[in-house]
Amino acid sequence: MQGSKLYVGNLTYSVTDEQLTQLFSAYGEVKQVTLIGNKGFGFIEMASSEEAEKAKEALDGTTFEGRNLKVDEARPQRERPDNRGFRRY
């Protein structure tokens, strides 16, 4: 794993930053938790890529709050066009 940022998917909408921090801190230092509002996913930044790899291997596919977690290395955000597909005149 190259980066220290993880994608976490299939979350319940009621999950909190604190719950994810507690869950992932068993595998190293959690630097940042970013939940994407009411979308069922978020991002966890660990202190090192080694810690991120440990967390991914341990937590991917496990049950948390009644749902099977999807944990993977976060991909870089894609560039989006400013116009969102609309033409400006």
Give the topology string: H per helix, E per strand: EHEEHEEE
Number of strands: 6
Alpha-carbon distance between the two ends: 45 Å
Superfamily (CATH H level) name: RRM (RNA recognition motif) domain
Shape: globular
Blueprint (SSEs and pairs):
Layout: E1 5-9, H1 17-24, E2 30-36, E3 41-46, H2 49-59, E4 63-64, E5 67-68, E6 70-73
Antiparallel strand pairs: 1-3, 1-6, 2-3, 4-5
Protein architecture, described:
- The structure is a single chain.
- The N and C termini lie far apart (45 Å).
- By secondary structure, this protein is α+β, with helices and mostly antiparallel strands.
- The chain has 2 helices and 6 strands.
- The strands form 2 sheets. The chain has a 4-stranded antiparallel β-sheet, with helices on one face. A two-stranded antiparallel ribbon has the order 4-5.
- The longest helix is centred in the middle third of the chain and has 11 residues, at 49-59.
- It has a single domain, classed as RRM (RNA recognition motif) domain (Alpha-Beta Plaits), CATH 3.30.70.
